[in-house]
Amino acid sequence: MAATATAPEADSQWPFTCDLEVDFGHEESAAIVCAALAVDKELQPDKVKRLMTVSHGKLSVHFEATEARFLRASFSAFVDVLTLATKTIEEFGHGMKL
């Protein structure tokens, strides 16, 4: 798992951003985790945005926020549910399908 906090990109609307990339090694596992986490919407969409994509077995997540504290809270909560989903895939994921 790799995470980076960066200065805002030229196309970023909000001043605080962070990117997270998790390599699941398999496209199917990454897609299952992405689908499971996609239903959990941001509690304050006017203050935090999250964009998830899956490519080559990797889940990539881009966060943008209006304030650093909202970014930290959103990122922390996301990592908690990501950890749970990942452990579920590791324990029961063999042969799971979307």
TrEMBL record:
Pfam families (UniProt xref): Pcc1
InterPro entries: CTAG/Pcc1
Family, as annotated: Belongs to the CTAG/PCC1 family.
PANTHER family recorded: EKC/KEOPS COMPLEX SUBUNIT PCC1 FAMILY MEMBER (PTHR31283), EKC_KEOPS COMPLEX SUBUNIT LAGE3 (PTHR31283:SF5)
Listed name of the protein: Transcription factor Pcc1
